[in-house]
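[recover] target loaded
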């Protein structure tokens, strides 16, 4: 789910569904309740600097070039996310 970093209502609603990841735009830290719920559910939270429209356009461009059903590419993308997202830092910053 891609949504604004300031939209905790949308973020929490998304966590009530089968959401695979939250991509929060605007480089805004999510509220601690969102981080806690995402952690409890094992849902990664990704912060990006761009606005929502730009982020969606970039994701569409990426997926138009990557066949996510190819296991090697999916695994490579997972590894890149793990290497480039510091969840411990985010949690520490939020006091979670």
């Amino acid at each position: 789910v891609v949504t604004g970093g300031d939209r905790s209502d949308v973020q929490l609603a998304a966590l009530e569904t089968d959401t695979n990841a939250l991509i929060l735009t605007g480089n805004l830290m999510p509220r601690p309740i969102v981080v806690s719920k995402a952690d409890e559910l094992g849902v990664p939270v990704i912060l990006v600097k761009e606005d929502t429209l730009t982020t969606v356009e970039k994701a569409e461009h990426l997926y138009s070039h990557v066949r996510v059903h190819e296991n090697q590419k999916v695994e490579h993308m997972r590894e890149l996310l793990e290497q480039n997202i510091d969840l411990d830092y985010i949690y520490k910053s939020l006091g979670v």
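[recover] notes: Residues 2-94 form a domain with the Udp-n-acetylmuramoylalanyl-d-glutamate--2,6- Diaminopimelate Ligase; Chain: A, domain 1 fold (CATH 3.40.1390.20).
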